[in-house]
Amino acid sequence: MFINDSSWGITPVNSFIHPSLRQLVLSTTGQDVYRCRGCSLCDVQAGDQDIPLNSLVQLVLMNDDEALNCRTLWSEEVLQTARSACIRELNLESMILTLRQEALRRGYQAPSMEVLS
Ligand code: SF4
After folding, report:
1. Of 33, 44, 67, 95, which is most buried with the most CB atoms under 10 A?
2. 39, 40, 92: which to mutate for ligand 1, most atoms within 8 A of CB?
3. Phi/psi at 62 (nearest 5 deg)?
4. How much distance in Å is there from the Cα of 86 to the middle of ligand 1?
5. pTM of the full predicted structure?
6. Rounded to the nearest 5°, which phi and psi values hold at 10?
7. Which sequence spans correspond to the domains of the chain?
8. How far, in Å, CA of 114 to CA of 16, rounded?
9. 6 C-alpha vs ligand 1 centroid, how far in Å?
10. At what angle do helices 92-105 and 21-29 cross, to 10 degrees?
11. Does 57 sit in the ligand 1 pocket, CB within 6 Å?
12. Which residues contact 11 (CB under 8 A, 6 or more apart)?
């Protein structure tokens, strides 16, 4: 659902309820995921993830709630490599920790993290 807005044309209604995920990460960590160039070089092969780390960044950019509801967000293996994974020096570890807090605040539950088969 959208509402007309004089400066941007249209504004998603849920932006009045929550800040965008990009805005949240930026204000909490100082990391602007808009700097991501989608190169995929941050991808790690963790057994308990469901989407690549760069896809998680893209979901944040799109303000897609799937970013808060994916297994990759809760992967400790991904978290351990995320701080230095980005060639553009985005601290993806702090992004993940911020998203986890936001997920819990919105009522999402961390999935059980047994290795996917
Ligand atoms: S390495 Fe950095 S710039 Fe490249 S896809 Fe990952 S987050 Fe984006």
Report:
1. 95
2. 39
3. -85, 0
4. 5
5. 0.82
6. -135, 155
7. 35-107
8. 36
9. 33
10. 120
11. yes
12. 2, 3, 4, 5
For ligand 1, whether the C-beta of 40 sits within 6 Å is yes
**How far is ligand 1, taken at its centre, from the CA of residue 61, in Å?**
12
Give the integer Cα–Cα distance in Å for 115 and 32: 31
47 lines ligand 1 (CB under 6 A): no
- 9: Cβ contacts below 8 Å, ≥ 6 apart: none
**Closest to 70 (Cα-Cα) out of 108, 35, 29, 24:** 108
Output the tens digit of pLDDT for each of the chain's 117 residues: 444 444 444 545 555 677 899 999 999 999 999 999 999 999 888 888 999 999 999 999 999 999 999 999 999 999 999 989 999 999 999 999 999 999 999 999 888 765 444
Atom 4 (ligand 1) nearest CA: 39
Distance between CA 102 and CA 69 in Å, rounded?
A: 11
* Cα first-last separation, the chain: 37
Tokens representing 58 are 């893209």
